[in-house]
Amino acid sequence: MQRRTLIGSTLSILFASALLAGCGDKAGDAAGGAAPEKKEITLGVTAGSSEEIAEQVAIVAAKKGLTIHVKTFGDYIAVDTALAQGDIDLNAFQHEPYLVNFNSKNNTDLVAIAKTYLAPIAGYSKRWKSVNEVPDGATVTVPNDPTNEGRALYELSRLGWIKLKEGVSTTKLTPNDIVANPKGIKLVELEAALLPRSLDDTDVAIINAGYAISAGLNSQKDSIFVESTETSPYVNIIAARKGTEKDPAYLKAVESFRSPEIKAFIEKTYKGSIVPSW
Question: Which ranges of the sequence are coiled-coil (predicted)?
Answer without folding.
Answer: none
